[in-house]
Amino acid sequence: MNLKRFFSRSASAPAARERLQVLLAHERASSGDSDLLKTLRDEIMAVIAKHMQVDGDKVSVKMERGASVSTLAVDIEVPFDGGKKAA
Amino acid sequence: MNLKRFFSRSASAPAARERLQVLLAHERASSGDSDLLKTLRDEIMAVIAKHMQVDGDKVSVKMERGASVSTLAVDIEVPFDGGKKAA
C-alpha cells in the first residue's frame, strides 16, 4: 500500500496544528451486515477522544457503502495545544 | 480523498472471506509524541476484536514514522464464518 503518496496532500497543511486521519475499508463476502463500519466508527472515535481533544466542528466523517466494499474516512484537526490529553 | 481508487485493489480478493483495512495517518505539529499511533493501534485492534474473529496469522500491521507524518496500516483477513462475532 502506497500510504506515503495517499497521505502526502496533508503535508501541506499549516504546521500549527495536528491532524489525524482514519480510513476503514470493509470488504464483505455477503451483501448484508454493513453496519460493522458504523459500529467501528463510533468505538474508534471514542478511543481517539481519550487521547486527543476532539472538537466536533473539526471532524469530517464520510461513509460510502458499496455492494461488497464499504469505506469510512474520518479526518480530525486538532489545535496544537489540544493534541495531547493524557499519554 | 479518493477512497474508491485506493481500496479498489482489494476488490479482486477471493469472495469467500471478509477483509477489514484500517489506515491511520497522524500529522504532528512537533516532531515528538509519535507514540499516539502505537497506542491507537492497540486500542483499535481491541475494538475490532470485539466484533470480528481476528486470527494473528491473518493480520498485517505496517507503521511508518516520518518527521511530521506517521502512518499505520492494518489489514485483517477474516474467514467467512468468522466475520460475525456479536452484533
UniProtKB/TrEMBL annotation, chains A, B:
The keyword Cell cycle appears for this protein: yes
InterPro entries reported in the protein's UniProt record: MinE, MinE_sf
Domain of life per record: Bacteria
Presence of keyword Zinc: no
GO BP term (any one): cell division
Gene3D superfamilies in alphabetical order: Cell division topological specificity factor MinE (3.30.1070.10)
Alphabetical keyword list: Cell cycle, Cell division
One Pfam family recorded for the sequence: MinE
Family designation: Belongs to the MinE family.
Function: Prevents the cell division inhibition by proteins MinC and MinD at internal division sites while permitting inhibition at polar sites. This ensures cell division at the proper site by restricting the formation of a division septum at the midpoint of the long axis of the cell.
Identification of the protein by name: Cell division topological specificity factor
Lineage: Bacteria, Pseudomonadati, Pseudomonadota, Alphaproteobacteria, Hyphomicrobiales
Gene name of this polypeptide: minE
